[in-house]
Amino acid sequence: MIILDGNNLTLDQVKKVLDDFEEVQLSEDSMKRVVKSREAVEKIVQEGKVVYGITTGFGKMSDVLINKEDAPDLQINLIRSHSCGVGKPFPEKVSRAMMLLRANALMKGFSGVRPVLIERLIELLNKKVHPVIPEQGSLGASGDLAPLSHLALVLVGEGEVFYEGERTPTEKVFQKLGIFPLTLTAKEGLALINGTQAMTAQGVVAMNEALNLVNQAEGIASLTIEALNGIITAFDDDVHQARGYAEQIDVARRMREYLKDSKLTTEQGEVRVQDAYSLRCIPQVHGATWQTLNYVKEKLEIEINAATDNPLIFDDGEKVISGGNFHGQPIAFAMDFLGIAMAEMANISERRVERLVNPQLNDLPPFLSGKPGLESGAMILQYAAASLVSENKTLAHPASVDSIPSSANQEDHVSMGTIGARHAHQIIQNVRRVLAIELFCAMQALEYRDKTKMATMTKTIYKNGREQAPVVENDRVFSKDIEKLAEWLLTKDWNTLFTKTEQEKVL
Fold this sequence. Notes:
Elements: E1 2-4, H1 11-19, E2 24-26, H2 28-47, H3 71-82, E3 86-89, H4 92-106, H5 115-126, E4 130-131, E5 134-136, H6 145-155, E6 160-163, E7 166-169, H7 170-177, H8 188-193, H9 197-227, H10 237-243, H11 246-259, H12 277-280, H13 282-303, E8 312-314, E9 319-321, H14 329-357, H15 379-395, H16 417-446, H17 456-468, H18 478-491, H19 500-506
């Protein structure tokens, strides 16, 4: 059970809600703040005070005063008019994350919504009713207006949802489950959509996948080291302590653990004096990606507990301030960094693939083919990896350096953070396939070595990997192997591959 209080949600808890469908409840103590905040909004409306978004229009029309009897129309008009998302929907997991994060933000008690609105979000979350939310259309300030409007539509019984594997009009699902649509009142529409929960939700999903991948990348690279009789000396602790980066030191330590009882690795000068960078510099490159992931994790854990709507209500309504917490710049930067760091994981992996298949760079059969010339073997697998790497270079162009004014120049600087988050997630899908290609090629290269000499842990990876992609005896449609391996990397918990002692050392 996860208890939302607006302040203490962690990425691990979010993962449990998204992947394990752990039930969510609302903190009673935090709900008291929500009630007081709502009372402040109702007082503002009754007294006719001029407060942005409560008794005025929005954006450039903030100087238009709204009568209190028109407050419900103001809010529903906002939601309908701002539901301008386009393109294919976000994955259900991202939609689910958006509901969770929006509810958590509202539980902070700065937004002025009724408790029933937050309760409805959690009811839909627990019943696995997920809004259909188009991916494109957000500038990342004033928050994720278009995506969150599609989320808000569902609360009033409009729009569409994913339920039990089908895309269905919200009204039909509500009738089936006995759920009544809400009528939004003063400030509630604005409080639902003025926030960064689309970019942050996509960021959290991308981050969870990235953390799995970088762990897996070290294990896969270890198989490549063995297949190429790589030099273990380069991972000596003294080398990495001499530079001082904790993440680099940790990667080198884990590589030593993966390979500690291998008879296929070599020592410096035994076969070669030194390896190519894609082997020798694994701790330096992978370690730098870990540094970036640590930064991104820190920003996401702040943002998932942040009040990001506008205006915010303080001191029981005595202080209501229009600010800019909806601006997504911190997450925009973090998502661009995430995409760049993960793209590099594919860059160095593709170079290892080249060393596995190029007969000029190893002592293995050309392209790992059993019948070179008659059969092409893994030749085009390297092409596919190179294509994915090239695509990542385009996707890794920072979205955060762009800004286009909106709302008649009232909103004259925006973050494009949602674009950055979407691109980071796309990059991660490509990285997974490049790593799947490396794993495939490394396993096939090991067919030409004495597999009894493999390290205990790499042998475990090899054995499990072979269940997804059998030994290549003749050319076949390798696309199927790569997709199956990529799906395995996405869905398989590598904790289950190793003993508890091994897990503690490398995961």
